[in-house]
């Protein structure tokens, strides 16, 4: 899922009575590769805390459990039809959240869309150039429907089995697992007594406490979806404290069919099987945890704008910004009532 979030990490000193060096904390940062993307962590603690081994362990856990890009991961074993693949609590947590979002968005968030994602060449099977025919898309829709899958306890502690009513389904959590990894890293930090931090994985962010260097909430930028490649431009900045933010957009990950000139995007509509652009250019979601923010951002990216307008008043657990192109060719914005309270400059 193409991200439309840019992490703004401020390294300048905050002008106040005390300089950062005089304050009673240490500033620590960590960067690296994680589940096919990058991560960054900034946190403040009373003393030096080495979290890199724990972060590496969590990344390995998620790769081996839920990455369709890791050949023998648990999810790939399930997709290959291996009998009695046992998964652990982190897999069940993602599965349960995905089912919740699937139900509340009337199926527009659907992790069983993987066969279609692969068919359009955006998946892990490596076939990047193909464009499926309408007949192929229709035939693959039979394998889509998260309501056809279930997870039940196994005969070992904290272990579960995933089953489906339809053989041949392809499950992928790429549109939600980064958010869950963010949440797991945040929990690890809090278990170590760290309460002021910013964790980002592939553009998905959770912010706790404050940026103590600046003595203010964390600033996170939202990209302008009309920007040109190599010319990054911010649309606005939000201030976060004890909240998560995730975004989805198709402006970085798409392809053009040479034969027809048709543009295809990586966000596949699970109800129609189509991967064509809509008027919605980007979605940003604020929630209490990054798993919810990540999943809902994908759902509203796949959803027609009018459908979003009807559903959002019933989803009190999230705040949403939708960026879309108006019929006049101008960039337009719609937000839930609470989203604007997070904007740093209130300029949307």
Automatic annotation (TrEMBL):
Record flagged with keyword Transport: no
Tree of life domain: Bacteria
EC number: 2.7.1.180
GO cellular component terms attached to this protein's record: plasma membrane
Pfam families: ApbE
InterPro entries per UniProt: ApbE, ApbE-like_sf
Record's catalysed reaction(s): L-threonyl-[protein] + FAD = FMN-L-threonyl-[protein] + AMP + H(+)
Keywords for this protein: Cell inner membrane, Cell membrane, FAD, Flavoprotein, Lipoprotein, Magnesium, Membrane, Metal-binding, Transferase
Cofactor(s) in the UniProt record: Mg(2+); Mn(2+)
Annotated Mg(2+) binding sites: 175, 294, 298
Molecular-function GO terms, alphabetical: metal ion binding; transferase activity
Compartments (UniProt record): Cell inner membrane
Cofactor binding: number and manner: Magnesium. Can also use manganese.
Membrane topology: Lipid-anchor
Gene3D superfamilies per the UniProt record, alphabetical: ApbE-like domains
Function in brief: Flavin transferase that catalyzes the transfer of the FMN moiety of FAD and its covalent binding to the hydroxyl group of a threonine residue in a target flavoprotein.
Family the UniProt entry places it in: Belongs to the ApbE family.
Identification of the protein by name: FAD:protein FMN transferase
């Amino acid at each position: 899922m193409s991200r439309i979030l840019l992490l703004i990490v401020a390294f300048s000193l905050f002008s106040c009575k005390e300089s950062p060096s005089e304050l009673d904390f240490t500033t620590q940062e960590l960067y690296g590769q994680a589940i096919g993307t990058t991560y960054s962590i900034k946190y403040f603690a009373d003393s030096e805390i080495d979290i890199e081994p724990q972060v590496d362990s969590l990344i390995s856990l998620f790769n081996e459990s839920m990455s369709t890009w890791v050949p023998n991961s648990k999810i790939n074993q399930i997709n290959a039809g291996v009998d009695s693949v046992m998964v652990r609590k982190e897999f069940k947590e993602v599965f349960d959240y995905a089912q919740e979002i699937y139900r509340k968005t009337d199926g527009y968030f659907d992790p069983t869309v993987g066969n279609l994602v692969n068919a359009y060449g955006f998946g892990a099977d490596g076939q990047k150039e193909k464009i499926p025919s309408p007949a192929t898309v229709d035939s693959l829709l039979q394998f889509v429907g998260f309501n056809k899958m279930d997870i039940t306890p196994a005969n070992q502690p904290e272990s579960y089995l995933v089953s489906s009513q339809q053989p041949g389904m392809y499950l992928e959590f790429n549109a939600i697992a980064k958010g869950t990894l963010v949440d797991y890293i945040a929990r690890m930090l809090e278990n170590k007594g760290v309460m002021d931090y910013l964790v980002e994985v592939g553009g998905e962010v959770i912010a706790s406490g404050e940026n103590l260097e600046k003595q203010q909430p964390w600033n996170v930028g939202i990209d302008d979806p009309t920007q040109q490649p190599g010319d990054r431009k911010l649309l606005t900045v939000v201030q976060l404290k004890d909240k998560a933010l995730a975004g989805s957009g198709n402006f970085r990950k798409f392809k053009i069919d040479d034969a027809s000139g048709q543009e295809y995007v990586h966000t596949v509509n699970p109800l129609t099987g189509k991967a064509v652009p809509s008027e919605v250019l980007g979605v940003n979601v604020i929630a209490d945890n990054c798993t919810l923010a990540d999943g809902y951002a994908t759902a509203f990216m796949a959803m027609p704008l009018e459908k979003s307008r009807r559903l959002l008043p019933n989803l009190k657990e999230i705040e949403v910004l939708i960026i879309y192109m108006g019929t006049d060719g101008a960039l337009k914005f719609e937000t839930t009532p609470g989203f604007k309270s997070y904007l740093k400059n209130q300029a949307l």
